[in-house]
């Protein structure tokens, strides 16, 4: 069930079907979304295409995230920050009709993402062996304002979880997740000024492109942290969407290397998201308990367009076995796990 893509080529064939299905340690496929073929009238294709760049940064005190997204019919720009000490969480978002001013790169390996208007400016720049996050949002949190300039080290040999799977007929998901990127820079949030150093702070990227079913559901879990012995460790787990018979997105990331896992189950209560979540895999390599301490509930209801996500922040504890057979003990690794329902 774990087909590894090793041959470069286009993402889509001329008829709109996927050229290859599976996962890879580095992106191999050119994201030729212009070949998508959902409707007879080609001019309507853009309204079903979903594209986003979602960056996240963990420091010992704070989580920060910023996103530039094009949902076809509208752009979605948002940023949020959570203080692990005080529990303060604040989020701001903009909905941009027809995605005017939203600029996203064709592939995850080059090009910049950018959005600017009178309220906010976000730029995600791809540089040689580095990714730069720049956000200036003066009105964030009723004028408190947030400004970040953060560099994420991303050497060419750093592996990522890249997934290509079908979703119903001629619908698909092309996704790249990069965890455990050493972060440096500065975050200014009102009168809080935080300097980020790569020995304590790590970032990640969720880069997604595809055509989803109108009614969609998924679970996603992610973490990036540092073990007591100094090694960088990350988790990327997911389920609930698409045809994953060829590959899943589940993996352990250790010192920039992917350790591939097969199917992973999410056990949690949708009646009480703050109860512990449990994760286990089909091979007996992963056994984790996730104890949430904060529920980020983000809900949008515009009639035919609906989205609701419970993104739980908490601590992972348990163990996972690497591809080489080493048992890694995990204790209080801060990360998140989420449940997402959407009509889009």
Structure description:
- The chain is an all-beta fold.
- The protein has one domain (9-343).
- The chain contains 1 helix and 24 strands.
- It has one helix at residues 140-143, and strands at 9-10, 22-24, 29-30, 49-58, 62-70, 74-83, 89-97, 113-116, 121-127, 130-137, 146-153, 161-166, 172-189, 192-196, 202-211, 215-226, 232-239, 251-254, 257-260, 264-267, 277-281, 286-301, 306-321, 327-343.
- Strand 13 (172-189) and strand 14 form a beta hairpin.
- The longest helix has 4 residues, at 140-143.
- The radius of gyration is 19 Å and the shape is globular.
- The two termini are 29 Å apart.
N to C succession of SSEs:
EEEEEEEEEEHEEEEEEEEEEEEEE
Measured by DSSP, the beta-strand proportion falls in: over 45%
Could you say which overall geometry the principal axes of the C-alpha atoms support?
globular
Assembly state (oligomeric): single chain
| Annotation field: number of helices | 1
**Termini separation (Å)?**
29 Å
Count of all domains? 1
Mean pLDDT: 95
Main sheet properties: 13 strands, antiparallel
Radius of gyration: 19 Å
What's the total number of strands?
Answer: 24
Q: What is the helical fraction, as a range of percent?
A: under 10%
Report low-confidence residues grouped into runs of 5 or more: none
Q: Give me the secondary-structure category.
A: mainly beta
Describe the protein's topology:
Elements: E1 9-10, E2 22-24, E3 29-30, E4 49-58, E5 62-70, E6 74-83, E7 89-97, E8 113-116, E9 121-127, E10 130-137, H1 140-143, E11 146-153, E12 161-166, E13 172-189, E14 192-196, E15 202-211, E16 215-226, E17 232-239, E18 251-254, E19 257-260, E20 264-267, E21 277-281, E22 286-301, E23 306-321, E24 327-343
Parallel strand pairs: 1-3
Antiparallel strand pairs: 2-12, 4-5, 4-15, 5-6, 6-7, 8-9, 9-10, 10-11, 11-13, 12-13, 13-14, 13-15, 16-17, 16-24, 17-18, 18-19, 20-21, 21-22, 22-23, 23-24
